[in-house]
Amino acid sequence: xxxxxxxxxxxxxNDRESFPSRxxxxxxxxxxHVWHWPTHPAQLFNKRLIGLTSLLTGxxxxxxxxxxxxxVARVASLNADHLLITGDFTTTALPSEFATIRHALEPAIxxxxxxxxxxxxxxxxxxxxxxxxxxxRTFGEFLPSPTFPWVKRLDPETVILxxxxxxxHATATGxxxxxxxxxAQALLAQQPHKRTIIACHYPVDAPPSLAKQLHHKRxxxxxxxxxxxxGLGPHLYCCGHLHKTWAFYSTRIPGQLSxxxxxxxxxxxxxxxxxxxxxxxxxxxxxxVDHHGWDGLGWQITRLIENPQFFTA
Length: 313
Ligand SMILES: [Fe+2]
Ligand SMILES: [Fe+2]
Prior knowledge:
This protein is of the alpha/beta class. 28% of the residues lie in helices and 24% in strands.
Protein backbone atom coordinates (compact mmCIF):
# COMPACT_ATOMS: atom_id res chain seq x y z
CA UNK A 1 0.00 0.00 0.00
CA UNK A 2 1.41 3.49 -0.83
CA UNK A 3 2.66 5.34 2.24
CA UNK A 4 0.07 8.16 2.07
CA UNK A 5 -2.79 5.63 1.87
CA UNK A 6 -1.32 3.59 4.70
CA UNK A 7 -1.14 6.77 6.82
CA UNK A 8 -4.76 7.59 6.00
CA UNK A 9 -5.81 4.07 6.92
CA UNK A 10 -4.12 4.41 10.30
CA UNK A 11 -5.55 7.90 10.83
CA UNK A 12 -9.01 8.15 9.26
CA UNK A 13 -9.95 11.74 8.25
CA ASN A 14 -13.07 11.74 10.44
CA ASP A 15 -10.84 11.45 13.52
CA ARG A 16 -10.52 15.16 14.37
CA GLU A 17 -7.46 14.55 16.53
CA SER A 18 -5.55 12.66 13.85
CA PHE A 19 -2.64 13.94 11.79
CA PRO A 20 -2.56 11.96 8.56
CA SER A 21 0.68 13.63 7.45
CA ARG A 22 4.04 12.05 7.91
CA UNK A 23 6.67 13.67 10.20
CA UNK A 24 8.25 16.84 8.85
CA UNK A 25 11.65 18.45 9.31
CA UNK A 26 12.05 22.18 8.72
CA UNK A 27 15.40 23.98 8.65
CA UNK A 28 15.02 27.53 9.95
CA UNK A 29 17.73 30.01 8.97
CA UNK A 30 17.86 33.77 9.37
CA UNK A 31 20.11 36.84 9.16
CA UNK A 32 22.80 35.49 6.84
CA HIS A 33 23.76 39.08 5.96
CA VAL A 34 25.77 38.76 2.78
CA TRP A 35 27.57 42.08 2.31
CA HIS A 36 29.30 43.80 -0.58
CA TRP A 37 30.97 47.18 -0.87
CA PRO A 38 28.96 49.49 -3.14
CA THR A 39 30.72 49.88 -6.51
CA HIS A 40 28.82 52.83 -7.95
CA PRO A 41 28.76 56.31 -6.32
CA ALA A 42 24.99 56.55 -6.97
CA GLN A 43 24.51 53.58 -4.64
CA LEU A 44 25.81 55.71 -1.77
CA PHE A 45 23.51 58.71 -1.96
CA ASN A 46 20.92 57.27 0.40
CA LYS A 47 20.62 55.38 3.67
CA ARG A 48 23.33 53.04 2.38
CA LEU A 49 25.89 55.57 3.66
CA ILE A 50 24.82 54.54 7.18
CA GLY A 51 25.17 50.87 6.24
CA LEU A 52 28.59 51.50 4.78
CA THR A 53 29.70 53.22 7.99
CA SER A 54 28.41 50.22 9.92
CA LEU A 55 30.39 47.88 7.65
CA LEU A 56 33.56 49.90 8.15
CA THR A 57 33.07 50.01 11.92
CA GLY A 58 32.70 46.31 12.48
CA UNK A 59 30.00 44.50 10.55
CA UNK A 60 32.50 43.31 7.93
CA UNK A 61 34.55 41.76 10.74
CA UNK A 62 31.55 40.36 12.59
CA UNK A 63 30.07 38.78 9.46
CA UNK A 64 32.96 36.99 7.72
CA UNK A 65 31.65 35.61 4.45
CA UNK A 66 34.10 32.74 4.12
CA UNK A 67 31.84 30.25 5.92
CA UNK A 68 28.81 30.80 3.69
CA UNK A 69 29.63 27.82 1.46
CA UNK A 70 30.09 25.39 4.34
CA UNK A 71 26.90 26.66 6.03
CA VAL A 72 24.88 25.98 2.89
CA ALA A 73 26.57 22.57 2.47
CA ARG A 74 25.59 21.64 6.03
CA VAL A 75 21.97 22.63 5.41
CA ALA A 76 21.92 20.76 2.09
CA SER A 77 23.32 17.62 3.72
CA LEU A 78 20.31 17.43 6.05
CA ASN A 79 17.81 16.98 3.18
CA ALA A 80 15.00 18.62 5.14
CA ASP A 81 11.40 18.66 3.95
CA HIS A 82 11.34 22.41 4.10
CA LEU A 83 13.73 25.36 4.32
CA LEU A 84 12.46 28.54 5.99
CA ILE A 85 14.56 31.71 5.92
CA THR A 86 13.28 34.68 7.91
CA GLY A 87 15.07 37.62 6.31
CA ASP A 88 18.19 39.75 6.32
CA PHE A 89 19.71 37.86 3.42
CA THR A 90 21.65 41.03 2.59
CA THR A 91 23.18 43.99 4.43
CA THR A 92 22.43 47.10 2.36
CA ALA A 93 20.05 45.51 -0.20
CA LEU A 94 22.50 45.87 -3.09
CA PRO A 95 21.49 43.99 -6.27
CA SER A 96 24.85 42.19 -6.13
CA GLU A 97 24.18 41.03 -2.54
CA PHE A 98 20.84 39.57 -3.62
CA ALA A 99 22.48 37.84 -6.60
CA THR A 100 25.23 36.37 -4.39
CA ILE A 101 22.91 34.92 -1.75
CA ARG A 102 20.48 33.53 -4.31
CA HIS A 103 23.31 31.72 -6.06
CA ALA A 104 24.94 30.56 -2.80
CA LEU A 105 21.70 29.06 -1.49
CA GLU A 106 21.10 26.93 -4.57
CA PRO A 107 22.41 23.61 -3.10
CA ALA A 108 20.25 24.03 0.01
CA ILE A 109 17.20 24.97 -2.06
CA UNK A 110 17.59 21.93 -4.30
CA UNK A 111 18.08 19.54 -1.38
CA UNK A 112 15.03 20.76 0.55
CA UNK A 113 11.56 19.88 -0.66
CA UNK A 114 10.40 23.51 -0.52
CA UNK A 115 11.70 26.99 0.32
CA UNK A 116 9.80 29.72 2.16
CA UNK A 117 11.25 33.21 2.55
CA UNK A 118 10.25 36.49 4.15
CA UNK A 119 12.33 39.68 3.95
CA UNK A 120 14.27 41.37 6.73
CA UNK A 121 14.71 45.09 7.23
CA UNK A 122 18.15 44.92 5.59
CA UNK A 123 16.50 43.48 2.45
CA UNK A 124 14.33 46.63 2.37
CA UNK A 125 17.28 48.88 3.30
CA UNK A 126 16.71 51.67 0.78
CA UNK A 127 13.57 53.09 -0.79
CA UNK A 128 15.00 52.27 -4.21
CA UNK A 129 15.48 48.58 -3.31
CA UNK A 130 11.80 48.46 -2.26
CA UNK A 131 10.68 50.33 -5.39
CA UNK A 132 12.73 47.95 -7.57
CA UNK A 133 11.24 44.97 -5.67
CA UNK A 134 14.70 43.39 -5.36
CA UNK A 135 13.60 40.86 -2.74
CA UNK A 136 10.59 39.81 -4.83
CA ARG A 137 12.66 39.62 -8.03
CA THR A 138 15.23 37.42 -6.28
CA PHE A 139 12.84 34.99 -4.59
CA GLY A 140 9.60 35.52 -6.54
CA GLU A 141 9.27 31.88 -7.60
CA PHE A 142 9.03 30.87 -3.91
CA LEU A 143 6.46 33.51 -2.92
CA PRO A 144 2.83 32.33 -2.94
CA SER A 145 1.75 35.90 -3.68
CA PRO A 146 3.57 39.02 -4.97
CA THR A 147 2.44 40.95 -1.89
CA PHE A 148 2.24 40.28 1.85
CA PRO A 149 0.63 38.68 3.74
CA TRP A 150 0.25 35.22 2.29
CA VAL A 151 -0.40 31.70 3.53
CA LYS A 152 1.52 28.71 2.20
CA ARG A 153 0.37 25.16 2.86
CA LEU A 154 3.14 22.70 3.73
CA ASP A 155 0.96 19.63 4.23
CA PRO A 156 -2.72 18.91 5.05
CA GLU A 157 -2.21 20.10 8.65
CA THR A 158 0.50 22.73 8.44
CA VAL A 159 0.45 26.27 7.08
CA ILE A 160 2.94 29.14 7.16
CA LEU A 161 1.70 32.72 7.37
CA UNK A 162 4.22 35.19 5.92
CA UNK A 163 4.25 38.74 7.33
CA UNK A 164 6.32 41.74 6.26
CA UNK A 165 6.67 44.64 8.72
CA UNK A 166 9.99 45.69 7.08
CA UNK A 167 10.54 49.16 5.65
CA UNK A 168 13.39 51.46 4.74
CA HIS A 169 13.70 53.62 7.84
CA ALA A 170 16.36 55.44 9.82
CA THR A 171 15.81 53.07 12.75
CA ALA A 172 15.64 49.25 12.93
CA THR A 173 12.00 49.31 14.04
CA GLY A 174 9.28 47.78 11.87
CA UNK A 175 5.65 48.54 11.26
CA UNK A 176 2.85 46.18 10.26
CA UNK A 177 0.08 48.09 8.46
CA UNK A 178 -3.40 47.47 9.83
CA UNK A 179 -4.56 46.25 6.42
CA UNK A 180 -1.83 43.56 6.39
CA UNK A 181 -2.92 42.28 9.79
CA UNK A 182 -6.58 42.17 8.75
CA UNK A 183 -5.72 40.29 5.56
CA ALA A 184 -3.58 37.84 7.55
CA GLN A 185 -6.47 37.12 9.91
CA ALA A 186 -8.83 36.50 6.99
CA LEU A 187 -6.35 34.33 5.06
CA LEU A 188 -5.58 32.10 8.03
CA ALA A 189 -9.26 31.70 8.87
CA GLN A 190 -9.92 30.44 5.32
CA GLN A 191 -7.33 27.66 5.55
CA PRO A 192 -8.24 24.59 7.62
CA HIS A 193 -5.15 23.49 9.54
CA LYS A 194 -3.90 22.12 12.83
CA ARG A 195 -0.37 23.50 12.92
CA THR A 196 0.28 27.23 12.49
CA ILE A 197 3.69 28.71 11.74
CA ILE A 198 4.13 32.48 11.59
CA ALA A 199 7.18 33.64 9.59
CA CYS A 200 8.12 37.23 10.39
CA HIS A 201 11.57 38.81 10.60
CA TYR A 202 10.63 40.87 13.66
CA PRO A 203 10.14 39.13 17.03
CA VAL A 204 7.09 40.13 19.06
CA ASP A 205 8.62 38.79 22.26
CA ALA A 206 12.12 37.87 23.45
CA PRO A 207 13.68 36.22 26.49
CA PRO A 208 13.74 38.69 29.43
CA SER A 209 17.51 39.27 29.13
CA LEU A 210 16.96 40.60 25.58
CA ALA A 211 13.94 42.81 26.27
CA LYS A 212 15.96 46.04 25.97
CA GLN A 213 17.44 44.96 22.63
CA LEU A 214 14.00 44.06 21.33
CA HIS A 215 12.64 47.45 22.37
CA HIS A 216 15.06 49.19 19.96
CA LYS A 217 14.19 46.72 17.18
CA ARG A 218 10.49 46.18 17.83
CA UNK A 219 7.43 46.39 15.61
CA UNK A 220 5.84 49.75 16.36
CA UNK A 221 2.17 49.85 17.32
CA UNK A 222 2.18 46.05 17.72
CA UNK A 223 -0.62 45.59 20.34
CA UNK A 224 -3.30 44.59 17.74
CA UNK A 225 -0.93 41.95 16.30
CA UNK A 226 -0.02 40.70 19.80
CA UNK A 227 -3.69 40.61 20.81
CA UNK A 228 -4.56 38.51 17.74
CA UNK A 229 -1.61 36.12 18.26
CA UNK A 230 -2.61 35.67 21.91
CA GLY A 231 -5.92 34.14 20.81
CA LEU A 232 -4.51 32.00 18.03
CA GLY A 233 -3.73 28.89 20.10
CA PRO A 234 -0.52 26.90 19.80
CA HIS A 235 1.72 28.36 17.11
CA LEU A 236 5.36 28.63 16.14
CA TYR A 237 6.64 32.16 15.67
CA CYS A 238 9.76 31.94 13.49
CA CYS A 239 11.74 35.18 13.50
CA GLY A 240 15.25 36.64 13.42
CA HIS A 241 16.53 40.25 13.60
CA LEU A 242 18.12 40.11 17.08
CA HIS A 243 21.01 37.82 16.06
CA LYS A 244 20.44 35.66 19.12
CA THR A 245 19.48 32.01 19.26
CA TRP A 246 16.39 31.12 21.25
CA ALA A 247 13.48 28.73 21.62
CA PHE A 248 11.14 29.81 24.40
CA TYR A 249 7.47 29.87 25.36
CA SER A 250 6.26 33.44 25.44
CA THR A 251 4.61 34.45 28.71
CA ARG A 252 3.28 37.58 27.03
CA ILE A 253 1.61 35.68 24.17
CA PRO A 254 -0.10 32.45 25.34
CA GLY A 255 0.40 29.56 22.92
CA GLN A 256 3.47 31.05 21.25
CA LEU A 257 6.70 29.08 20.90
CA SER A 258 9.14 31.70 19.64
CA UNK A 259 12.08 30.46 17.55
CA UNK A 260 15.12 32.49 16.50
CA UNK A 261 18.11 30.74 14.90
CA UNK A 262 20.47 33.72 15.36
CA UNK A 263 22.89 34.88 12.66
CA UNK A 264 24.74 31.84 11.25
CA UNK A 265 27.87 33.71 10.07
CA UNK A 266 28.23 36.12 12.97
CA UNK A 267 31.33 36.20 15.15
CA UNK A 268 30.65 37.92 18.46
CA UNK A 269 33.79 38.13 20.56
CA UNK A 270 31.98 39.81 23.48
CA UNK A 271 29.34 37.08 23.72
CA UNK A 272 30.84 33.97 22.14
CA UNK A 273 28.31 31.44 20.90
CA UNK A 274 28.12 28.78 18.24
CA UNK A 275 26.41 30.44 15.26
CA UNK A 276 24.11 28.27 13.21
CA UNK A 277 20.49 27.41 12.52
CA UNK A 278 17.50 25.45 13.82
CA UNK A 279 16.12 22.07 12.79
CA UNK A 280 12.42 21.81 13.69
CA UNK A 281 10.90 18.33 13.92
CA UNK A 282 7.10 18.06 13.69
CA UNK A 283 5.30 14.79 14.26
CA UNK A 284 1.57 14.92 14.90
CA UNK A 285 1.13 17.00 18.11
CA UNK A 286 4.82 16.81 18.99
CA UNK A 287 7.69 19.18 18.31
CA UNK A 288 11.34 19.21 19.09
CA VAL A 289 13.88 21.80 18.03
CA ASP A 290 17.62 21.26 17.64
CA HIS A 291 20.27 23.92 17.16
CA HIS A 292 23.17 23.21 14.80
CA GLY A 293 26.04 25.44 15.94
CA TRP A 294 29.53 25.88 14.50
CA ASP A 295 32.18 25.84 17.28
CA GLY A 296 35.13 26.59 15.02
CA LEU A 297 36.00 22.95 14.48
CA GLY A 298 32.71 21.24 13.76
CA TRP A 299 28.94 21.33 14.08
CA GLN A 300 27.46 20.77 17.54
CA ILE A 301 23.82 19.75 17.88
CA THR A 302 21.93 20.92 20.96
CA ARG A 303 18.32 20.07 21.81
CA LEU A 304 16.62 23.40 22.67
CA ILE A 305 13.07 22.29 23.28
CA GLU A 306 10.94 19.16 23.25
CA ASN A 307 7.18 19.00 23.70
CA PRO A 308 5.16 15.89 22.79
CA GLN A 309 1.81 17.72 23.09
CA PHE A 310 2.50 21.24 21.78
CA PHE A 311 -0.11 21.22 19.02
CA THR A 312 -2.83 19.74 21.20
CA ALA A 313 -5.59 22.34 21.08
FE1 LIG B 1 19.92 40.95 10.93
FE1 LIG C 1 16.97 42.65 10.89
